[in-house]
Amino acid sequence: MMHRNTATALVALATTLATSGAAFAQSTPAADPAAATPAPVVSPLTANVSFTTNYKFRGQDQDMISNSFTSPVKTSGFKPAIQGGFDYAHESGFYVGNWNSSVNWLPGNSIESDFYGGYKFKAGPVDLDFGVLQYYYSGNTAGNTTELYGAGTWADEVLGSFTAKYSWTVSKDYFNYAGNKAGSGQKGQNTSYLNLSYSKTVLTSLTLKAAVGYTFMSSDIKSLGYRNYLDYNVGASWDFGGGLSLAGSVQGANHEDAYAVANHPGFDLGFGPIGATTYSPNKARFIATLTKTF
Question: Rounded CA gap, 149 and 131, in Å?
Fold first, then answer.
């Protein structure tokens, strides 16, 4: 039989253990279900592919050469192009990428490949971006162009997003406008481009966009008859979710005559050509683009 003092001591010990156990349970925080679920890992590598009804760059058509004997220039507004690329963005702010598109404005070349790299960081309320961009045309390197660029973006949930970007040409030519590689002795270096853009999401999936740009041609290019010009891009995009979006916009540029090319020489009846026609890559077009990002 258990001694009365021993039993009393055991009861006291059990009471003490129970009390301390309850206190420990109360002092230990409960496990957070959210903390137990790891945050989704965001890949630094993304990719994209697009189909567009017409590829314009700074307001100008990038598909111009026609195989037709009677019309050496494509004048249709429907000039489909396939495009795509990838981007790698490091958490430090450094990034590199590549973007490609089918084109047809340089003889012997059918693809544009852009290679770029830079650094993004915040300066107060402004997101800054500085980098270098190489435009490469493997079939005809006369069009190769290298630019340095800097951009700043200020965004507000109510007012929208505003971006200013400036690009400066450091290569000897600017998309072969000066004909430098052919031995013209002229240069496109120091040509620059300023772009101001705005976007605002008005519905969950609908974003309105507008942009205006201005190209400052080098003095050598202007001596050949080309002019500084203004381009524009106004439209909207719809996000279907899952990385799929559809954009529609009107794009073009002014000074169409300064960039017009002969489409048909006409017929010379002894007193000047009759029926001669030209086409300008600056002509305004409505463009639709379907994009999938991964």
Answer: 5
DSSP β-bridge partners for residue 186: none
For residues 189 and 7, the model is more confident at 189
**How is domain 35-293 classified at the architecture level of CATH?**
Beta Barrel (2.40)
pTM for the complete prediction?
0.83
pLDDT of residue 63: 96
69 vs 65, 72, 73, 105, 267, CA distance in Å?
11, 6, 10, 16, 15
The whole-angstrom separation of Cα 194 and Cα 286 is: 23
Average pLDDT across the chain, whole number: 88
Side-chain half-sphere CA neighbours of 181 within 13 A: 12
* CA-based nearest residue to 85, from 140, 139, 151, 136: 136
Cβ-contact 121, 93 below 8 angstroms = yes
Question: What was the pLDDT predicted at 37?
Answer: 61
